[in-house]
Write a structure and sequence with these properties.
The C terminus is likely disordered. It contains eight helices and eleven strands. A hairpin with a 2-residue loop joins strand 7 and strand 8. Helices cover 36% and strands 26% of the residues. With 261 residues, the protein is α+β, with helices and mostly antiparallel strands. The longest helix has 25 residues.
Length: 261
């Protein structure tokens, strides 16, 4: 299985700066998305630090280990890289006054042949689109999700809640953080969507699925997702990453596009 990646990010309509960050590495199959939080520009620093560190370190390990690494070993590598990224952000926040309190959500995927390991912290999400069906494959670490799980509120009440942005887990806030990781089997034609809450808070799953089910190129789908979030208010930064699973060895044109040549 091969993967085509595409990303789009936008500050939204109300924010002056963009505190989201996103990165991917075709060679290793690593994709990372983060939504920063903190004081002026500090959220941008946290998300950029996390994505750059994890893409580089996890990508390097995966290229060395190759496909011989089993799921348990990849999970361990993800945990170590996220732990080290957490310490880097936490240390910066505690040694630079302008970065006090900064942190970031995180969603990271390792796409290897027909296997996806996806880990997340906070409320940045990963969805799978397969057979014209959109499924959220991560569960938010948020107060709202805890209230839903406990039966304290209904999904309808959650949709209009003012507590959407209260996360219960974030990278860089404490000296240790738990990455939740799950393994999924990938099928040919799957499209995976990672996004910050600038998309998921603005747009319900149905409109997202309608965009995903079209035959439009990946880049166009990504632009449409950004556009619909802005059309619904654009109250936050919006970032999306799409990963399309294609069978076999892609044609030269696609390979050039994957490698950015």
């Amino acid at each position: 299985m091969m993967y085509e990646f595409c990303t789009q990010t936008h500050a939204g309509l109300l924010r002056e700066n963009n505190e989201d960050a996103v990165a991917f590495d075709v060679a290793s199959g690593v994709a990372v998305l983060a939504d920063g939080m903190g004081g002026y520009n500090a959220g941008e620093v946290a998300s950029s630090m996390a994505t750059a560190f994890i893409q580089t370190e996890l990508g390097r390990w995966l290229l060395d280990a190759g496909l011989q690494a089993n799921g348990k070993e990849v999970r361990r590598a993800m945990d170590i890289c996220v732990h080290n990224a957490n310490l880097a952000v936490f240390t910066a926040a505690n040694t630079h006054e302008e970065y006090v309190g900064m942190g970031t959500t995180l969603v990271v995927g390792v796409f290897q042949d027909s296997r996806l390991l996806v880990g997340h912290i906070g409320d940045s999400r990963c969805y799978r689109f397969r057979d014209n069906t959109l499924v959220q494959i991560t569960k938010d670490h948020s107060l709202l999700q805890e209230q839903l799980d406990a039966g304290l509120i209904t999904p309808a009440q959650a949709a209009v809640s003012t507590n959407k942005n209260l996360v219960t887990r974030a990278l860089g806030i404490e000296d240790a953080v738990m990455l939740e990781v799950h393994e999924h089997t990938v099928e040919e034609g799957d499209v995976y969507l990672m996004c910050s809450d600038g998309l998921s808070d603005m747009v319900d799953d149905v409109p997202i699925a309608r965009i995903m089910e079209t035959d439009a190129p990946l880049e166009q789908k990504a632009r449409q997702l950004i556009s619909i979030a802005n059309a619904h208010g654009g109250r936050d930064n919006i970032t999306v990453l799409l990963a399309h699973a294609v069978a076999g060895i892609p044609k030269r044109g696609l390979m050039s596009r994957l490698l950015g040549n």
